[in-house]
Design brief:
Order of helices and strands: HHEEEEEEEHHHHEHHEHHE
Strand order of the largest sheet: 3-2-5
Structural class: alpha+beta
CATH topology of the largest domain: Tetrahydropterin Synthase, Chain A
Number of strands: 10
Number of domains: 4
Mean pLDDT: 79
Largest sheet: 3 strands, antiparallel
Helix content: 55-70%
């Protein structure tokens, strides 16, 4: 809603005040007709002059019609019109304007009903066309945007719509701009805010995504196990060709098992015992008992006891 300027009212007050002052100086008790004519004349002149004065803001353009025909495009700033003969029916805002529009329950190319919310950014580039060629350009551009959105949705798959919003926005901008260019309107951009799908379909898509993630996790786990098995195979070949390395590895496994503070029972394969040449079961048992006695003061308070055993 355009706010009226205070300048025409100020001009009316000044001219009418000057006329009243002049009428007061010519006023006499016996002949007041001249003073009355001056006052009425000043009021008429003040009305005509104030009606002729117009001011357009920096972002406005005024359409001036003379006897119903286009006379000129005025603004910004001060301009004058001829009362009664000329009128200003339209004040056009040339700033960037935003309009929200939506398409509800519109079927996509794969027959899925969706609700799409979008925002349109546009501006007037030719005020004359906007005023003379379109009755209500704001409503016209809103309807053009909605119909274009429905057309784009009907030609797009749901997956493409969810993944490629930028592509949809650019397509909408192109279509709307083609429709509104003859009206003197330029579409700056179109942004898709949200795409709403049915709740049942949303749940199904969520389950599908979860199943896909589980499948990928299982594939990664299987591939990891395969790589581990390959490394174990390479290690086995190395140990088979190098008995000394296998002997050191077996002793290291036994040592790691015995030094753990939470380990009281150590299970050692008989082949590892024979390889390490610990003297059979008696040697392993003696070694375990010795390590257990050395750790006893650190593991338990006074009065407690611990034991170790080994089985081939």
């Amino acid at each position: 809603m355009r706010k009226p300027s205070a300048l025409p009212g100020l001009v009316f007050v000044i001219i009418f005040g000057v006329g009243l002052a002049f009428a007061y100086t010519t006023f006499t008790v016996f002949d007041y007709r001249e003073s009355l004519l001056v006052a009425v004349g000043s009021a008429i002149i003040a009305f005509i002059v104030s009606y002729s004065v117009r001011i357009a803001d920096q972002w406005e353009r005024a359409i001036v019609l003379r006897l119903g025909r286009f006379r000129s495009l005025e603004g910004p700033g001060l301009f004058f019109i001829i009362p009664i003969i000329e009128t200003v029916p339209y004040w056009i805002d040339i700033r960037v304007i935003t309009n929200g529009f939506k398409a509800e329950k519109t079927l996509t190319k794969d027959t899925v009903p969706v609700d799409v919310d979008a925002v349109l950014f546009w501006k007037v580039v030719d005020p004359k066309k906007v005023a003379l060629d379109v009755a209500d350009y704001v409503s016209a551009i809103n309807w053009a945007a909605q119909t274009a959105l429905r057309d784009v949705i009907g030609k797009t798959m749901l997956s493409d719509m969810l993944e490629g919003r930028e592509k949809i926005s650019s397509e909408l901008q192109r279509i709307i701009d083609v429709r509104t260019e003859p009206w003197g309107i330029n579409v700056i951009s179109v942004e898709v805010k949200d795409v709403l799908i049915p709740a049942a379909l949303e749940d199904a898509m969520s389950m599908q995504a979860q199943a896909e993630r589980e499948r990928q996790a299982r594939v990664i786990l299987g591939d990891s196990e395969r790589q581990v098995a390959e490394k174990f195979g390479e290690a086995a070949k190395t140990y088979a060709d190098n008995p000394t390395a296998f002997h050191l590895r077996a002793m290291n496994m036994l040592y790691e098992g015995l030094k753990s503070k939470n380990t009281t029972i150590v299970i050692v394969p008989s082949t590892a015992v024979e390889t390490m040449q610990l003297g059979g079961l008696a040697g392993v048992t003696a070694l375990t008992a010795t390590l257990g006695r050395e750790r006893a003061p650190e593991r338990a308070p006074p009065g407690s006891w611990s034991s170790g055993s080994a089985t081939p």
